[in-house]
Specification:
The chain has about 475 residues and is an alpha/beta fold. The chain has helices spanning about 5-35, 40-60, 75-95, 105-140, 155-165, 200-205, 220-230, 240-245, 270-290, 290-305, 355-360, 370-375, 385-395, 415-420, 425-440, 445-460, and strands spanning about 145-150, 170-175, 190-195, 210, 235-240, 260-265, 310-315, 325-330, 380, 410. Helix 3 runs antiparallel to helix 4 (about 105-140).
């Protein structure tokens, strides 16, 4: 069974419990609080039909249905409590506050009853669902497909610990050797090759988790392996050293599991990612409408500055390594790269006079709001690069591939702090800011970067 089945299952259950809880709440309100006989009026049926859709939308933004097979009972209870609390407040101010009541105490009673009934119904249904899901995952062959990198004594120890755990949810597909002597797992797991075979093995076996069984003190090798695996979808766990244990980095979601550090796939909570995408769509839509006069003026200015097209389209590498056409106002003469790919630099003769002004104010980037609406870019994110330069950067610093886990942005922390890069070395310097952004992503940081970008636009301080 795929995730879509479990998502549909839980959504259907949430719709049922949300409708049932509203029905019971309506009965309690009329009979217990208002002292009237129960009557299923128009508001009752409208609530039964439409309020469950509100709750499912609320749960979706919250991230309840994201990575659904990794739900566990405590997490379900936390999600249900938070959603019921904030959802009840929304319904109170939108629906209940208009009710005619005998005293203000009735408002408090209505809110508390709605919260308790909804939380009880939702939690009970979800606990049953999670119990069924966990039993399914623990069944032979249904666990998370797991690959072990390394076949030393420590790898054998981890494998046996996880295998003996009461809540074992891993389905081991095999292991990969790190060196020629790493083969102690051969009697117990299939040997799938060496590190050079890593990418094909991950794809062929549809690996969902990777356990790297080499010491975390071996930083260079560890970073190289993680950079090749980390795509935001595969869970990565590594061996902790004493510093990691003292720093509180060890994952303790499974008490019976092996002592491992889980590499956090994304520090931005799911609800913030949903709000970020919604903000992208709203801001891009408003910008494209409000900037129509500017687009007309810019188009005339670009056309007047030199012969050639108004817009400049170029292949860039976006999220998950997928290529897309980035849209800009043309700032260079049409034959600017007749000698091959080149980065712009200070005093670059290929840049037109109008183009120089547009680059300083970042105005050439404005057509990328179309890329944002198409889902290829975000307002804030690491700047997308061409494959030609990515190959050069990765040869020096493999960590660059972390930046392709998210949508690239019109602006970025590296762009604000460093501006346009003139060579690969400057790209590497700018990359450090974008990597720091990746490890600290939040809506607050995005708003701060956008604020400083606006200052650069108005002051024309761009590099």
């Amino acid at each position: 069974m795929k995730d879509r089945f479990w998502i549909a299952f839980l959504m259907g259950l949430d719709l049922l419990t949300a409708g049932s809880s509203w029905g019971l709440f309506f009965y309690v309100r009329q009979v217990q609080i208002e002292g009237k006989p129960f009557h299923a009026d128009e508001n009752f049926w409208l609530g039964i039909l439409f309020l469950p859709l509100f709750w499912v939308l609320f749960y979706t933004i919250q991230g309840t249905y994201h990575d659904i097979r990794r739900l566990f009972r405590l997490k379900v209870l936390n999600l249900s409590f938070a959603a019921s609390f904030f959802g009840t407040l929304v319904l109170f101010f939108t629906l209940l506050l208009d009710d005619q009541v005998r005293s203000y105490q009735n408002y408090y009673q209505l809110t508390i009853w709605l919260f308790i009934i909804h939380l009880s119904f939702t939690s009970f249904g979800r606990i049953v669902f999670t119990t069924i899901l966990i039993k399914y995952i623990k069944a032979a062959g249904h666990g998370f497909k797991t690959l072990i990198i390394g076949g030393n004594e420590r790898a054998v120890e981890i494998y046996q610990e996880l295998l003996a755990a009461p809540n074992m949810i891993n389905h081991f597909v095999g292991f990969i050797q790190v060196n020629g002597r790493d083969n102690l797992l051969v009697p117990q797991l299939p040997h799938l090759g060496k590190l050079s075979d890593l990418q094909p093995v991950l794809a062929q076996h549809q690996v969902e988790e990777v356990i790297i069984a080499i010491e975390s003190s071996d930083h260079d090798r560890l970073q190289s392996i993680i950079a090749r695996i980390d795509n935001g979808k595969i869970r990565i766990r590594i061996l902790p050293d004493m510093y990691s244990i003292l720093a509180g980095s060890v994952d303790m979601t499974n008490i019976y599991g092996a002592l491992l550090i889980e590499i956090n796939p994304d520090v931005m909570p799911y609800w913030q990612r949903a709000v970020k995408r919604l903000m992208d769509i709203l801001v891009a839509s408003v910008a494209l409408v409000c900037l129509i006069p500017f687009f007309i003026f810019s188009a005339i200015a670009v056309k007047w500055s030199s012969p050639g097209p108004i817009f400049f389209l170029q292949d860039r590498v976006g999220r998950d390594g997928k290529c897309f056409k980035i849209i800009k106002f043309r700032t260079m003469y049409t034959d600017a790269e007749k000698a091959g790919p080149q980065l712009s630099k200070e005093g670059d003769p290929r840049i037109t006079p109008i183009g120089l002004f547009m680059r300083k104010t970042r105005l050439d980037e404005f057509p990328q709001f179309f890329n944002v609406l198409l889902g290829q870019m975000s307002l804030v994110g690491p700047r997308p690069e061409r494959q030609f330069y990515i190959d050069q950067i990765v040869a020096v610093e493999p960590q660059y591939m972390h930046l392709t886990r998210v949508r690239p942005g019109i602006t970025s922390w590296g762009q604000v702090k460093y501006g346009y890069a003139e060579n690969v070395d400057q790209m590497l310097q700018r990359m450090k800011f974008d990597l720091i952004y990746m490890k600290n992503r939040s809506l607050a940081l995005d708003l701060k970067i956008m604020f400083y970008t606006v200052i650069i636009v108005f002051k024309a301080q761009g590099k």
